[in-house]
Structures are given as C-alpha cells and as structure tokens.
Design brief:
With 405 residues, the protein is an alpha+beta fold. It has helices spanning 2-16, 35-45, 65-76, 84-96, 98-104, 108-115, 351-357, and strands at 118-131, 139-151, 157-167, 192-201, 204-214, 222-232, 236-245, 250-259, 264-275, 278-292, 295-304, 311-319, 330-339, 360-369, 375-385, 393-404.
Length: 405
C-alpha cells in the first residue's frame, strides 16, 4: 500500500511541476530528432559537407549548436558549387544557426582548435531498485561515469571511459549489481570501460581497442568488446566486427542499419560468439518507426542456435522523449520483453539492467522527466516471470536520477 502511495505521489509531484524555459546557448545539445541531423546527413552524402572531423557525418551522435554552426560555416564557403536544392538546404541551416554563425566570425579557427583538443563528459547517477516480496534484485548505489576524448589530428580521436560505483549499504564494495543474483561480481571500482581510437581508414569509419558495441536494439548484445570494427555507407550502414568479449569469448559479426525514411529505421545483424570452443550463433531483426506525432513504436526479435528457449522478443511504445537539455521535457513508455538465457548474450552495458533483462518475460512501464538542465529522472515498474521456467515471479520498482556534464 505504501509503495503504491509513494509512486502515486512521485507521479503527481513530477508531472505537477510547471515547465521551465531556458535559452539555448552555442554549446547546448541539439535534440536527437531535430531536422538539422537529416539535413547535414544529406549534404554529407552529397559530398558537400565534411562532418565532425571523423571523415563522415553519420547522424548517430548528439551535437551542439556550435558544432552544427561550424559545419554550416564550412559549407557556406562552397555555396557557389552547389545545386539549387542544396543551396536551399544550406540557407535553412544558416537561418537556424544564424546567432551561432554571427558569433563565430573570424574566430572559427581558434574555437575549433580549442574544442578539438581534450574534451571531458560524463554522468553521475543515484539509483534505488526495490524488489517486491524478495531482495534478489535490490540495488541502491551511486555511480560516476567519465568519458575523455582527445583529438590526435583532424581525423583520429582517442577515447577513454572510466567508471566508479559504490553501494549505499556497503561503500567499501564496488558494483552493487546483483550481490544475490550473481555470485561472481567483484564490482566497478575504477575500471577502464573503454579505451580505443577511431577515425577513417580505407573508406570506412573504424574503431580499434576496447569499446562499447550494441547489436540492433540491444536485444542480444550490449556491452564492451576488444578488437576492431569498420563501418561503411550512409543511408544503409554496414558494420563488420572482429573482437573478443569481456569474457574472452571470440566475437565476429555483421550489422546492417537502414534509414528507410525520415521516421523509420530497420536494423539486422548476425553474430558468432565462441563460448568454450563452442560456436553460438545469434541473429536479430528489428525496426523503430513514428506511428503518430510523438509516438514511437519499436519491435525486435532474435534467435540463437541453441536447441531450446532460443527466441527473444522486445516491443515498446514511447510517447514523446526526454531531452536532458530541454527542461520540462519527458516521456512515457511501456514495453514487453521475453529474453530466455539461451537466446541472448549480453543484453545491456549496464550490469544491473543486464541482470534484470536476461531470463525475464514481462512488461515494464514508466517515465523519464527532465527537472533541471542536464539531468533526467527515471521511474519505472517491471512485472513478470523468469523466461526459462516461468516459475519465479519478478516485480521490481526503480527510482533514479542522473546528471550530465
């Protein structure tokens, strides 16, 4: 009863807060669904724009208004060489970022030099997970995730990620993920989560080192691997991977991502992972599409070559989107997941969520909300059973706040 009352009060408080407005600055992030990404991606595909320094603009990462303005400033210099259609698109971009362009002027080169050296970003998180009628998945921790990016030259970047985590009831221990759920879990103390270089090579965008890899929609694999990958193409992107997992299992795969239209994407992949000298094969097919204003539908399915319980499914409906740079923005979501142990490998780079997602069949419903600039509040409830036997009830509440820098 108290849990239900608490959730009701939290929902009333969060959605009762009046929306706050803020002024965009040159270094504010441009929301992921903003039309600028598609516009610059088209100009990059036409060879008019150079992108973000890695040799190509793929539209798969969040950029600031300044970064867009720098690209627009460069392309304006080529305006005499473009078609009428391209010129109209450039003019539209110039209008959107006119204030940033006016502020750049002759200082563009100096600012580029300043921004392109060492960059620091990351997130701090406080999480409270509570399992109903059990304590296997209880988790209360604070986490700090720091990312470093150093631009070696115009093409190549070195990237490093360090993560630190402590649980509230035992601050001397590391990762609090599933102390009861997983026996062998020494923890996140200050480990190097990622360490790699990235840049253009033989017509592809490459990564070399230890880096984060996510299969389509993260259904089969979402974690760190050690090795190399190469990505080709724009509208249809193909990625070839040859690596090892954190568990030293050999990993090879091919991903295909296709931007079917402005509002629809399709992803597919095939992976072969050698576990104790036995090849495990996984394949995934999924899509995400806008089915109405502010309503996004996602669905994915996966299958392995194991003999039993070898199929996994995921589907979600999401209304609106929480943007950490837009105070007062938020979203509502409900999803269904069936992920038997035999059907997947790593389902989430977040160790705690990996524990929750593997061997689960049921629903998750919740919301995200941005109470202050560069933050996000997340509340959800998941309810279901273990996917392998269907005998164990799993009901978990989560409350979480993240701040970004």
């Amino acid at each position: 009863m108290r849990k239900s009352l608490l959730i009701t009060l939290v929902l009333a408080l969060v959605f009762g807060i009046s929306s706050l407005a803020f002024a965009a600055t040159p270094f504010s992030d441009v929301p992921a669904k903003h039309w600028s990404y598609a516009a610059v991606k088209k100009l990059a595909a036409d060879g008019i724009i150079e992108g973000d320094g890695s040799g190509a603009f793929k539209g798969d990462k969040i950029l600031t208004r300044y970064e867009f303005a720098v690209m627009v400033a460069k392309v304006i210099e080529k305006e005499a060489k473009v078609t009428a259609e391209q010129k109209a698109l450039i003019n539209k971009l110039a209008g959107e970022y006119k204030d940033e362009l006016a502020g750049l002027g002759v200082k563009v080169k100096a600012l580029e030099d300043k921004v392109s050296a060492l960059e620091l970003s990351g997130a701090a998180r406080v999480r409270y997970d509570l399992q109903r009628d059990a304590s296997t998945y209880d988790d209360r921790h604070i986490n700090l995730d720091i990312n470093y990016s150093y631009r070696v030259n115009a093409d190549w970047i070195v990237k490093v990620e360090n993560e630190f985590q402590r649980k509230f009831n035992n601050p001397n221990a590391g990762d609090s993920a599933g102390d009861n759920a997983i026996a062998d879990n020494e923890g996140i103390d200050s480990q190097t989560e990622q360490l790699y270089i990235t840049g253009p090579l033989v017509g592809a965008t490459t990564k070399l080192g230890k880096y984060h890899y996510k299969s389509p929609y993260g259904l089969v694999f979402d974690g760190r691997i050690m090795g190399a990958e190469a990505t080709f193409g724009n509208v249809v992107r193909t990625t070839l991977i040859s690596s090892n997992t954190d568990a030293d299992d050999g990993f090879k795969g091919i991903d295909v991502a296709w931007a079917v239209g402005k509002d629809t994407n399709v992803g597919a992949n095939y992976q072969r992972i050698d576990v104790n000298n036995v090849s495990k094969n996984y394949c995934t097919l999924g899509l995400d599409t806008k089915i109405a204003d502010d309503l996004i539908f996602t669905a994915a399915a996966a299958k392995s070559n194991n003999n039993t319980n070898n199929k996994a499914y995921y589907t979600q409906l999401q209304y609106k989107a929480a943007e950490s740079t837009v105070v007062g923005s938020g979203d509502l979501f409900v999803n269904y997941r069936k992920t038997p142990t035999n059907a997947v490998y790593y389902t989430d780079k977040d160790t705690e969520d990996r524990i929750l997602d593997i061997n689960f069949k049921g629903i998750r419903v919740g919301f995200d909300y941005v109470p202050t600039l560069n933050s996000k509040l997340t509340v959800w409830y998941m309810s279901g059973k273990d996917a392998d036997t269907g005998l164990t009830n799993i009901k978990i509440y989560r409350g979480q706040i993240e701040v970004y820098f």
